[in-house]
Specification:
The structure is a single chain. By secondary structure, the chain is mainly β. The protein has no helices and 15 strands. Strands 8, 9, 10, 12 and 13 form a 5-stranded antiparallel beta sheet that branches. Strand 1 and strand 2 form a beta hairpin. The protein starts with 6 loop residues before the first strand and ends in a 9-residue tail after the last strand.
Length: 196
């Protein structure tokens, strides 16, 4: 008798690196063999017993959409298949950042900056961009206002206790988890010095 229709589990978001693909099949007697195919090519070898799992090395594939097919054959030679689409993405997003000239806020004693970024990814139309850090180049301690690490904040204000030059870092992350970081240096405005 034919195997019952098999089930194939593949991720619904793009994947990268090495990834296990699982499948299930049942038959009234027994499953003689099961194979996993990507774009028509057998991955690894056919298996004759559960668990039906294959290691997919996505770096061996071009980034993009692939057809994954699970085939199960019973001991009588009857076969059945299940097919899914799978996206692979091993490329990091491209991230560019630029900052406005600093504006001094004399009431708060800090300099305001606005950051603009451009981000592109071959498999993800909207990678997430977040602030990683804003630190003085001098390595000293300084306070940052109006921004939170891990957020998409594009505006921040730095006090002058850490010196005048700061490095701001942003990270872009796509759906597959690929990341890239870009940094930019900004120079804080200095209040005019009066005579003592």
């Amino acid at each position: 008798q034919d195997t019952r229709k098999p089930s194939l589990t593949v991720p619904t978001t793009p994947i990268r690196g090495d990834h296990w693909i699982s499948a299930n099949a049942a038959d009234s007697v027994s499953i003689a063999s099961a194979g996993l195919f990507v774009d028509g090519s057998l991955i690894g070898r056919r298996l004759s017993a559960e668990p039906f799992r294959w290691l997919l090395r996505t770096r061996d594939l071009a980034d993009g959409i692939h057809t994954v097919e699970f085939e199960a054959v019973d001991s009588s030679g009857n076969g059945t298949k299940e097919e899914r689409q799978l996206a692979t993405d091993n490329g990091a997003p491209q991230l560019g950042i630029e900052a406005s000239r600093g504006e001094l806020d004399t009431q708060r004693g800090c300099t305001h900056f606005s950051v603009r970024w451009t981000v592109a990814d071959s498999q993800d139309a909207t990678p997430i961009v977040s602030l990683v850090s804003v630190e003085p180049r001098s390595g000293s301690k300084s306070r940052i206002f109006d921004a939170e690490v891990g957020s998409p904040d594009q505006k921040f204000c730095v006090d002058l206790s850490g010196g005048r030059t700061y490095r701001a870092a942003y990270r872009a992350t796509d759906l597959a988890g690929n990341e890239t970081t870009a940094t930019i240096s900004v120079t804080a405005a200095h209040p005019a010095r009066g005579s003592n």
